Each structure stands twice: as structure tokens, then as C-alpha cells.
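Chapter review. Work through the record for Ribosomal protein, l7ae family before attempting the end-of-chapter questions.
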Amino acid sequence: MPLERLKQARQKTVGTKQTLKAVEKGQVKVVYVAVDADPHLVDPLMKLCEEKAIPVISVDSMEALGLACNIKVGSASAAIVAE
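C-alpha cells for Ribosomal protein, l7ae family:
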């Protein structure tokens, strides 16, 4: 399951704003994006990841991504900063 790596990461970002900032700073190893997230929110992140050659992994739902990040709400995106 692709979310195991995210669950075990020492340092991660949760949410699109935090993830976007970390990608801009070059701190991110891999980004996770929920398939059911609003494209208006995640498209700028996806474009930046493409520009910086950062791998993007699609996740089935925002709920699944939120659970993997140990939060009780859904998350549109998350990223691994340090493993």
C-alpha cells in the first residue's frame, strides 16, 4: 500500500498550503494527492511538482490520506519531507 511510506515518515506536511510551501523550498521527496480533491486546490501543486520533477502518488480519497496522516479530517494532499 502506497500510504505505508507516508504513515512511517519522520517528517511530513499535511494539507495543500503546507505541502506547496515545502515543495517551493525544495524540501519534499514525494507528494501524495487525493483523487477526490478539488482540482482548483491541487492543480497548482501538481504543476509545481512536475516542474521540480517531484513524484506524485495518487490516493483513493481525502479521507484515506487524512487517516494516513493521523488526522480526523480529510486531506487533499500531503508530502514526505524526511523518512
